[in-house]
Amino acid sequence: MMQYFEWYLPNNGLWWKRCAAKAENLRDLGVTQVWLPPAYKGTCQDDVGYGVYDMYDLGEFDQKGTVRTKYGTKDEYIGAIRAFHAAGIKVYADIVLNHRLGGDETEEVTAVADSPEDRNHQVAGERKVKVWSRFTFPGRKGKYSRFVWDHSCFTGTDWDENSRSRDLIYRFTGKQWDPDVDPEKGNFDYLMGMNVDMDNPVVVRETKRWLRWYLTQTGVDGLRLDAVKHISFPFYRELLKNIRKTTGRACPAVGEYWSGDIGRLLYYLDMVDGEMSLFDVALHYNFYNASRSGGQFGMRNIFQNTLVQQRPDNAVTFVDNHDTQYGQSLQSFVEDWFKPLAYAMILLRKDGVPCVFYSDYYGNPAQNRPMVPNLGMLMKTRWRYAYGEQVDYLDDDNVIGWVRRGDEEHRGSGIAVVLSDAGAGCKHMEMGRGMAGETFYDAMGGCPNPVTVDEEGFGDFSVTERGLAVWVRAGALEDLVVNE
Question: Which residues are catalytic?
Answer without folding.
Answer: 226, 256
